[in-house]
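Hi C.,

You asked whether I'd gotten around to modeling the 371-residue construct. I have! Everything is below, sequence then structure, no commentary in between.
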Amino acid sequence: MKITGITTRLIEVDPRPRYLGGVIPPGRPTRWLYPLLTVHTDAGIDGHSMAYGPHGDGAALVDVLHAAYAPEIIGRDPLDTEGIWQTLWRKQRHLYNQRDTLLGVVDVALWDIKGKVAGLPIACLLGRCRDRMPCYASSRSEALTAEGVFEEAARLKAEGFRGYKLQLRAGPEADIPRLRAAREAVGARFPLMQDPNASYTLAEAFAVGRVLDELDYHWYEEPLPDQHVNALRQLAARVRTPLLVGETVRLTELTVYLRECVGSMLRGDTLMKGGITGLRKAMATAELFGLPLEIHTANTPLLDVANLHVACAAANTEFVENHHPVFRFGLKRHPLEIDAEGCARLPEGPGLGVELDLDWIDDRTRGERMS
């Protein structure tokens, strides 16, 4: 079997539902363009994947996919996922202007083909451990008041989610009352997480971390930039709440946190760790060091399905993340819509195991390119 070409569509998504009151903040794109990638083969079996689109770079990503990646994979056997991944990983050494995300996008499409050829879900090819994952909900807005956080946390718990993550980054004075409101809303022992997206200073991270300890939060995610290893080590020594680190670094840079004993939990996903192949390597490495690796949402439908497959084939991860519903589009049914037990269930079909909603996609296609 050979790869004969790739097709990429630009899919337009309305971002307004993502923002409180439907008001797009100044400087943010007024439309999102997500690249939908299809890898074609001479056996008539296609693989699908999708790149990230909310930052105005969707069209540029299509150009890079076709200029830098298509020539490397056309003519290759799509079942050689490791060999192709190694070729593209070495190429990343010279692609200074970008991260490893497009490598991950291509890799997911190849695994989709691989599963379809085998007639099995990707998780089964990886070595399935389970067929569902507990799902926590991330806050639908970072701009909620304490009252709004209380209402949302209580509502999402009542809907069946197994945890609730805030993404507050306004500083201790504004964030701490909202962190307290979340605990008051859900009661003791319900998992709560805080993710300020690396927005705190070290002093602010200490102040918030002490409150998280008091409130028994489940983890403290990216309180400081991942690259500030020394500051993270100081924070970890003074805060009891587990630090979740490594989301934004390359796959090979995760070893820094293992070697330096920074944080007690690692972070990764198929977008930022080099696809299914890369995330699987990260999961196995963390497991050998006795650490969990919690899988971050890619906010990209097909990549989040890929995340679910990897999670179901690993023993050292606890949750999958359910972000704002605006990010679940283009599929007939999205597996991250939780069941009655608050879990995301693994699709049973081959490959990614999901069906594209082609009518919806056709209606929102704003461009197409083929190689």
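If it helps when you're writing up: The CA atoms of residues 49 and 105 lie 6 Å apart.

Thanks,
B.
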